[in-house]
Amino acid sequence: MISDWRFRRGDPIVVLTGAGISRESGLDTFRDIGGVWSKVKLEDVATPEGYARDPQQVQDFYNARRAQLTEAAIQPNAAHRALAALEAEWRGPVFLVTQNIDDLHERAGSRSLLHMHGELRRVRCTACGDNREEAGAVTIADVCPKCSAIGTRRPDIVWFGEMPYGMDRIYEALVDCELFISIGTSGTVYPAAGFVTEARAHGAYCLELNLEPSHGASMFHRVLNGPATELVPRLVE
Ligand code: BV8
């Protein structure tokens, strides 16, 4: 469908994804009914203050979500695969910025990928900065394998009030892109929710694919509503 439009193969594309693209893979979104923030208070588990108050509660929250990624039922879906195919076939820059901390985009084959809110499968040491893959559970008694500090290993996740990763690179891509596609995000969390404004201000065509109109839907030139596993493959075919 993209190729039906005025875009030439090779025009730079920026794609932003949120929790909605992983919903049909079995991972909860945050703000839908029954979502993550309906089961635990954001302030307790996704802020530096919450971590300072009760670090083990935060470790347990992320340990459970990390363990879920290894369940056989949790697999990339047709939307993740379609974005990987777009990157392989478009012959131009397709830069995928995800708010998600799961690993489904890379498992689907996406390579030009930035996890702006961090990655569930990475843990970093607040004493020495060591940052490495971690498939198992982390506790407050953990010893840093690099500097031997105790209890300094935290999830490599961007919490509220912390600076997201890759912001300079993201804004450069938003200035240059011809097409900005937002998929499966409610448009609630900044700075990601403001990317459409930046892209539109620099002349990009802005397209939203979401189960329902997001908070920022009015900023998009076109909004398509439906499940990602239906909309994204159709967009890419
Ligand atoms: C920062 C942790 C600055 C990881 C998360 C203005 C400008 C800048 C900042 C702010 C601002 N206003 C307020 C702020 C502060 C704050 C913020 O935005 N607060 C909100 C609540 C108002 N932002 C920050 O703190 C950010 N940091 O700006 O730092 C700074 C400057 C200088 C120095 C230091 C700092 C940090 C934000 C990141 C926080 N971390 N999570 C984790 O545990 O996962 S955010 C959290 O929300 C998740 O990471 C998630 O990725 C993100 C966005 O949620 P969505 O992905 O959109 O998920 P949601 O459930 O909301 O929506 C799902 C959508 O999918 C729905 O629309 C649904 O309809 C749709 N859907 C469902 N099923 C399907 C579907 N779509 C398609 N198909 C389906 N099948």
Explain briefly what this protein structure is.
The protein is α/β, with parallel strands linked by helices and 237 residues long. The chain has 9 helices and 9 strands. Helix 8 (195-201) links the parallel strand 7 (179-183) and strand 8.
Describe this structure in words.
- NAD-dependent lysine deacetylase and desuccinylase that specifically removes acetyl and succinyl groups on target proteins. Modulates the activities of several proteins which are inactive in their acylated form.
- Belongs to the sirtuin family. Class III subfamily.
- It comes from Elstera cyanobacteriorum.
- Substrate binds at residues 62, 65.
- With 237 residues, the protein is of the alpha/beta class.
- It has two domains: 1-27 and 75-117 and 164-237, Rossmann fold (3-Layer(aba) Sandwich); 29-73 and 120-157, SIR2/SIRT2 'Small Domain', CATH 3.30.1600.10.
- It is built from nine helices and nine strands.
- The chain has helices at 20-23, 42-45, 48-53, 55-69, 78-89, 104-108, 167-176, 195-201, 228-236; strands at 13-17, 94-98, 113-115, 118-125, 131-133, 153-157, 179-183, 205-210, 222-225.
- It has a six-stranded parallel sheet, with helices on both faces.
- Strand 2 (94-98), helix 6 (104-108) and strand 3 (113-115) form a beta-alpha-beta unit.
- The longest helix has 15 residues, at 55-69.
- The chain starts with 12 loop residues before the first strand and ends with a helix.
- The mean pLDDT is 96.
- The structure holds ligand BV8.
